[in-house]
Write a structure and sequence with these properties.
The complex is a heterodimer of chains A (191) and B (174). With 191 residues, chain A is mainly alpha-helical. Chain A is built from 8 helices and no strands. In chain A, helix 2 runs antiparallel to helix 3, helix 3 packs across helix 4 and helix 7 packs across helix 8. Chain B is mainly α. Chain B has 5 helices and no strands. Chains A and B meet through helix 1, helix 2, helix 3, helix 5 and helix 6 of A and helix 3, helix 4 and helix 5 of B.
Chain lengths: 191, 174
């Protein structure tokens, strides 16, 4: 009823809005690319292991960085920035979990690791260990998987874990202890 | 803590030697190249045993995940984010117009319905007069209906002019 052709001034206005949106991103391109190169594999590994789904990890990786770029926050340090990125990733994984795509799958080790034999590792033993871990992780709550991964894969401190998961620092010690006990018991039970 | 204490140790949530154990794991010194004292401690400390079990499994898996990670390049990721930010901004800017258009259509429909409601007796009277051949009543009814429709048409026309102007003013201020 009221539709009309866009005028040149409309297009200019929309272009100004779009340009402003890009300028409002958290970082400029160079800073972002350096930050991404430092963190992307860590974030992907985290997402893949807490969800048990590689393709979901691919999707959530992109969404995490986009939301991070759109965040209107000031960061005090690289660690703060990184923790915030992990918090976004964690929240997105929780959202997917709530929406039903949260069934933790036991990931099948990829076949393209044949080259791993060349570096002397025992591929069969490593694959078996990974499968055991995936099965044991599947018995944990999402929060426990996240906490353990951050602590022992990322080497995050209690403060960093609290920051990344949106929990109180004082509760991390006991929660981590319980999660570690459960995973150790699950791993012990498989061996 | 208290790994050297006699009898069953109290439940501790963490152990002060945990960082030593993690260092030994990270530097691949565990289990063959750690000092005897640390090995003895781990043998008697439940917390450190759990740390060894869990951390060694997770670190091995982390190395595998690192190798299998196939992430888009940083340039590609930036480009996608930039395009999406542009699209989102344009969509957000267009949303008030869409809402205003929807409201305008709804309002117009309400005006027509209300007008129809009030005009219905006149229309009914007109058709009744025409069917009975009462030309005097039909003329009077037609005159009344005409004046009503003219008022409605003026109201609708004014609205159709004012609504886009209001939208324009709102958007240009934004």
């Amino acid at each position: 009823m009221f539709s009309r052709e866009l005028t040149v001034s409309d297009l200019e206005r929309l272009d100004r809005i779009a340009t402003a949106a890009v300028e409002a991103l958290q970082m400029d391109e160079d800073t972002f690319r350096a930050f991404y190169d430092r963190t992307a594999r860590q974030v992907w590994a985290y997402l893949a292991r807490i969800t048990g789904d590689r393709s979901l990890a691919d999707d959530l990786l992109q969404e995490s960085y986009y939301r991070f770029l759109r965040a209107e926050r000031a960061f005090t340090s690289e660690s703060h920035r990184r923790n915030y990125l992990f918090r976004i990733a964690t929240n997105l994984a929780h959202d997917r979990h709530r929406r039903g795509r949260g069934v933790f799958n036991v990931p099948v080790p990829e076949e393209n690791e044949a080259g791993a034999l060349a570096d002397g590792r025992d591929l069969a033993a490593e694959t078996a260990q990974r499968t055991d871990l995936a099965r044991a992780m599947a018995t944990l709550k999402p929060r426990e998987r996240e906490m353990l991964w951050l602590a022992y894969a990322q080497g995050s401190s209690h403060e960093e874990i609290a920051d990344s998961l949106g929990l109180r620092k004082s509760s991390i010690k006991i929660l981590l202890f319980r999660a570690r006990r459960r995973l150790a018991a699950a791993l012990g039970g498989q061996r | 803590m208290s790994a050297r204490m006699e009898g069953p140790a109290p439940v501790n949530f963490e152990c002060p030697r945990e960082s030593d154990v993690l260092d030994a794991l990270a530097s691949a010194r565990w289990p063959n190249r750690v000092d005897r004292e640390l090995a003895d401690h781990v043998a008697s400390c439940v917390v450190c045993q759990d740390v060894i079990t869990v951390a060694s499994a997770i670190q091995t898996d982390h190395d595998s995940a690192w190798r299998e990670a196939s992430v888009p390049s940083s340039g590609q990721m930036w480009w996608r984010a930039e395009m999406r930010a542009r699209q989102d901004a344009i969509r957000d800017a267009s949303r008030p117009v869409t809402v205003a258009q929807g409201m305008a259509v709804l309002f117009a429909l309400v005006v027509v319905a209300v007008g129809g409601w009030f005009a219905w007796p006149s229309i009914y009277g007109l058709f009744s007069a025409l069917s009975t051949g009462d030309t005097q009543s039909a003329t009077a009814t037609t005159a009344f209906a005409s004046s009503l429709f003219i008022r409605l048409a003026i109201a609708m026309g004014a609205f159709l002019i004012v609504a886009p102007l209001a939208i324009y003013v709102v958007l240009s201020e934004k």
